[in-house]
Amino acid sequence: CVLSVKSSGNIIVIQTLSGCANAAAEAIDTSNFPMILGSIAGDNTIFLVVDDPEKTPVLVEQFNDLLK
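^ that's the sequence the OP posted. Answer follows.
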């Protein structure tokens, strides 16, 4: 249900199919990514806050690998 993963600074923005953001955010929240401080989910968008901007590209790559 995830369509894209993009980032800016220490924020990751995940676009999902309509109505899927809450379920995807719950999956991320329960996956124990210690560098993610928190998430906010709307209907089709998730914002993740990363503790260090230098870790953001690594997380984006991990999420994109899961989409393959």
